[in-house]
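User: Sequence recovery, please. Input:
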């Protein structure tokens, strides 16, 4: 497989969208993985703030801009066929999107490269989740044999799973390979597994114990495989290959011309389906490429079927059923092709239009970053969008077509059930909405804002459970408790689109002329505090309020904390926070994470927006700040300000518990969260541990014995914090709370 080699003075041609950035020239199965040390500073590029489009991922490279500055530029490359030698290659598949599924009786078994989902399809109009299970590797693709489930489980290889009880599948056997199991195909009693650069593994599956028969070498990178009558047909990223299964001999290989542009693979061979003497290969913007396989030793392209002018179309999957080929076309939807006469389906080669890179006309601008970067679009996940059309793969069966995806860009796993006679007609849908945003704790009570929100409590058995429905929580972004235990929730008014605060027991919500964001709400005694563009509003529950002026203007959502005798407030773009009391506002010492020069860099903003979380307690005032992936913590204690570097990341939330800070950093590109424990006891911040898990944290709060992390796609992760390394003790799934 060729890799991208760009010179520092590369001039952008016509290829995938490019964003230029400044540079110097888990799951509940185990609760996440413990990292012995912070990730390396030069670890995987997280890419720009926006998630990649469906079927792709970001890749970084150094270029020189028109101003003569060296920058880190990001291009969109195929998620399967791009960056295959990256040590973090498999991590990128954790993005929240359904990838594949198989129907066994009236149960649909679906995978998202993190978990195994079991859906009850007894009523196709209303699919219901029966189980969500970890412990099956990194499930990329599924197939069925003799009523059992076969899972291509990434680095764990091929898994054979007993699904006699659909609610409790269990692993019967597995076999590992030298490369990741990316795709599985069944013919008779044999499984063919695409394992990337390691080739195609051939596995006997007749018995309950899987047995590796042989591995077929493949030119290129085996992304997907099909077989028929002793020949394996392999989509191998930059080639298409035919292999004799009995001998392992390469019969032939060929691919379309001009598959590379400027060393970027723009026609990735990533999936394959057989129809007659034609192999149809999913190839990104090139759609479905028809390969003549009449003679496996003389394979040749016939043509391709694509939408040349519709750049939302990106083919990732192909499936043939009943004379129709269903092409999973990403944000376009599904493209059906008549393959009753497959040799004529795609008879000419068409070159699709590729999106031109955006002009970097802002690179020398003197405008401040908050005027140039659309930060509001990515500060928090957007509202749940209308039901979308965003499949990576399909499963056509009698009377139905399942579409898996929907999608990386919006962070929602979904499966559409569509009418094969009219794909615009939706018969049913299953979706996992974004569940949480803000979280607060008081004693044993836990308040969660978001679609899965409500009031929860820790029982005598130490288990977190729901204690009360709070309809207002499902509309909220931010959460807090008053001193008397009443909850306070802040969000956007459905009527005005501006800020609104709900207080437990209050007859009416309280309207504000400013938006309220997660982290933009604090409370103490009988008063809650909401930051505004020019200060903080203190609102007493007896309906009186006062506004404290900061003397500054905030351009991004502020963080606010309340201490014994002062407020602490900061906007992410400020290089110093403010202490506000009855006398006025006093700047604290500048944070160590970034300075005036860094915060003025549009390029850094494009990589990752500035973030700030402020906290205050007995140890003093504390700040966690990040910009462009670089992060730090500052303690303003009795001995003066002390700063320390944090592991790289986009730090979205933090909480102070005694002399410890628990901070969460989210990598949206790899769909990964780091929980970082920072000790302040000595007066100098010190990173004690880093625990990573698959998911997107949106908030964190702590009690005396427990840490509660709001996971936007799962619910609430509960950690024991008796030791420096938090230990996961429970995951409370809130998906049922968000169902209509």
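Assistant: Recovered sequence (740 residues):
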């Amino acid at each position: 497989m060729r890799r991208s080699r760009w010179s520092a003075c590369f001039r952008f041609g016509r290829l995938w969208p490019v964003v230029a950035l400044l540079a110097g020239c888990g799951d509940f199965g185990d609760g996440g993985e413990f990292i012995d040390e912070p990730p390396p500073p030069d670890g995987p590029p997280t890419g720009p703030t926006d998630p990649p489009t469906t079927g792709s991922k970001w890749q970084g490279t150094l270029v020189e801009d028109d101003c003569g500055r060296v920058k880190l530029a990001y291009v969109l490359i195929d998620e399967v066929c791009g960056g295959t030698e990256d040590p973090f290659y498999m991590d990128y598949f954790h993005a929240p999107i359904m990838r594949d599924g198989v129907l066994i009786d009236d149960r649909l078994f679906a995978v998202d490269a993190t978990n195994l989902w079991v859906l009850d399809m007894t009523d196709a109009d209303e699919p219901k989740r029966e189980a969500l299970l970890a412990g099956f590797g990194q499930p990329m693709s599924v197939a069925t044999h003799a009523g059992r489930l076969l899972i291509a489980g990434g680095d764990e290889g091929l898994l054979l799973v007993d699904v006699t009880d659909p609610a409790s599948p269990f692993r019967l056997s597995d076999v590992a390979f030298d490369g990741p199991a990316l795709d599985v195909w069944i013919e008779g009693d044999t499984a063919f597994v695409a394992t990337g650069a390691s080739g195609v593994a051939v596995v006997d599956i007749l018995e309950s114990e899987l047995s590796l028969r042989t591995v077929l070498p493949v030119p290129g990178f085996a992304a997907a495989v099909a077989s028929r009558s002793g020949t394996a047909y392999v989509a191998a990223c930059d080639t298409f290959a035919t292999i004799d299964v009995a001998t392992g001999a390469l019969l032939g290989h060929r691919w379309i011309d001009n598959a590379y542009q400027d060393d970027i693979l723009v026609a990735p061979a990533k999936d394959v389906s057989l129809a007659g003497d034609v192999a149809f290969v999913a190839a990104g913007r090139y759609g479905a490429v028809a390969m003549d396989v009449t003679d496996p030793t003389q394979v040749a392209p016939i043509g391709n079927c694509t939408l040349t002018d519709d750049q939302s179309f990106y083919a990732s999957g192909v499936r043939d059923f009943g004379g129709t080929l269903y092409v999973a076309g990403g944000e376009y939807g599904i493209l059906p092709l008549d393959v009753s006469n497959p040799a004529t389906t795609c008879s000419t080669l068409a070159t699709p239009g590729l999106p031109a890179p955006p002009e970097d006309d802002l690179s020398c601008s003197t405008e401040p970053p908050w005027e140039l970067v659309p930060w509001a679009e990515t500060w928090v996940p957007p509202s749940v969008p209308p039901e979308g059309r965003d499949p990576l793969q399909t499963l056509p069966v009698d009377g139905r077509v399942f579409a898996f995806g929907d999608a990386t860009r919006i962070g929602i796993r979904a499966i559409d059930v569509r009418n094969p006679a009219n794909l615009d007609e939706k018969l049913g849908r299953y979706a996992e909405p974004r569940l949480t945003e803000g979280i607060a704790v008081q004693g044993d009570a836990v308040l969660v804002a978001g679609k899965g929100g409500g009031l929860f409590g820790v029982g005598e058995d130490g288990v977190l459970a729901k204690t009360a429905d709070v309809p207002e929580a499902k509309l909220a972004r931010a959460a807090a408790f008053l001193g008397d235990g009443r909850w306070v929730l802040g969000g956007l008014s459905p009527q005005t689109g501006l800020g609104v605060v709900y207080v437990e027991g209050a007859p009416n919500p309280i309207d504000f002329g400013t938006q309220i964001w997660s982290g933009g709400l604090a409370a103490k005694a009988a008063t809650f505090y909401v930051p505004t563009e020019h200060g903080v509003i203190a609102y007493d529950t007896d309906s009186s309020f006062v506004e404290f002026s900061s003397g500054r203007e905030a351009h991004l959502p502020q963080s606010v904390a309340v201490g014994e005798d002062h407020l602490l407030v900061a906007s992410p773009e400020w290089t110093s926070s403010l202490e506000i009391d009855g006398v006025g506002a006093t700047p604290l010492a500048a944070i160590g994470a970034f300075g005036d020069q860094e915060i003025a860099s549009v390029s850094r903003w494009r990589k990752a927006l500035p973030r700030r979380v402020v906290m205050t307690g007995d140890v003093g005032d504390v700040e966690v700040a990040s910009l462009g992936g670089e992060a730090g913590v500052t303690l303003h204690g009795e001995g003066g300000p002390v700063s320390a570097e944090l592991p790289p990341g986009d730090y979205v939330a933090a909480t102070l518990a005694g002399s410890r800070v628990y901070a969460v950093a989210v990598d949206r590109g790899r769909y990964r969260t780091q929980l970082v424990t920072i000790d302040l006891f000595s007066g100098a911040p010190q990173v004690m541990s880093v625990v990573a898990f698959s998911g997107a944290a949106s908030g964190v709060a702590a009690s005396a014995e427990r840490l509660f992390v709001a996971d936007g796609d799962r619910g609430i992760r509960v950690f024991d914090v008796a030791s420096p390394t938090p230990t996961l003790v429970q995951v409370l799934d809130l998906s049922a709370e968000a169902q209509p």
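The chain has a mean pLDDT of 85.
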